[in-house]
């Protein structure tokens, strides 16, 4: 069971790394193309500004999932900074469960929002709504990483800041 969860974690990290890297590459290329088109040809690439906004979301969510996997995400558990190491280890799983619960609630809200957006979007705007799927998918990935942390426990032995 643990080996299957570890394999799932590795597959997720590989997928998220690839998506974040591809999104960053596309963002740089699209932005460069837009700059060249505007400065040299007095025109722009159609929908480039919208796409760059979505690519930033993709980079953010896939990067956040990678940070959650490595336990390097932004933490608000200030009390843990003052606790001794054994107490921090005891709080790891409950905090992972809390993070998973919060991300699950955000996933459900984002999915409801996306469904409403899809239902009321004009036909010519549906491509943007499809790109917005990254928001519920991102929160779902974050929830999954917190659940994996809950089930597998801490991976690091060195002290974290």
From TrEMBL:
Q: Which UniProt keywords apply?
A: Cell inner membrane, Cell membrane, Membrane, Transmembrane, Transmembrane helix, Transport
Main subcellular location: membrane
Q: Which domain of life is it from?
A: Bacteria
A GO molecular function annotation here is:
transmembrane transporter activity
Record-annotated Tripartite ATP-independent periplasmic transporters DctQ component domain positions: 27-150
Can you quote a single GO CC term? Answer: plasma membrane
Residue ranges of the TM segments: 12-36, 51-70, 91-110, 130-152
**Subcellular locations according to the entry:** Cell inner membrane
- Fetch the InterPro entries from UniProt: DctQ, TRAP_DctQ
Annotated membrane topology: Multi-pass membrane protein
Cell cycle in keyword set: no
Q: Name one GO biological process term.
A: C4-dicarboxylate transport
Q: What Pfam families does the entry give?
A: DctQ
| Role summary | Part of the tripartite ATP-independent periplasmic (TRAP) transport system.
**Annotated family:** Belongs to the TRAP transporter small permease family.
PANTHER family of this UniProt entry?
Answer: 2,3-DIKETO-L-GULONATE TRAP TRANSPORTER SMALL PERMEASE PROTEIN YIAM (PTHR35011)
Listed under subunit, the entry gives: The complex comprises the extracytoplasmic solute receptor protein and the two transmembrane proteins.
Name listed for the protein in its UniProt record: TRAP transporter small permease protein
Question: What organism is the protein native to?
Answer: Thiohalobacter thiocyanaticus
């Amino acid at each position: 069971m643990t080996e299957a969860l570890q394999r799932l974690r590795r597959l997720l990290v590989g997928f998220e790394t690839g998506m974040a890297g591809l999104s960053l590459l596309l963002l740089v290329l699209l932005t460069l193309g837009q700059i060249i088109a505007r400065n040299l040809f007095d025109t722009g690439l159609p929908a480039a500004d919208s796409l760059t906004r979505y690519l930033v979301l993709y980079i953010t969510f896939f990067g956040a999932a990678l940070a959650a996997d490595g336990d390097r995400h932004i933490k608000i558990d200030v009390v843990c900074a003052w606790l001794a190491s054994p107490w921090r280890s005891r709080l790891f799983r409950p905090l992972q469960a809390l993070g998973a619960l919060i991300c699950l609630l955000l996933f459900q809200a984002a999915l409801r929002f996306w469904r409403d957006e899809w239902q009321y979007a004009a036909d010519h705007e549906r491509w943007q709504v499809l790109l917005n799927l990254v928001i519920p998918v991102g929160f779902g990935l974050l929830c999954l990483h917190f659940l994996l942390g809950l089930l597998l426990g801490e991976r690091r032995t060195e002290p974290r800041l």
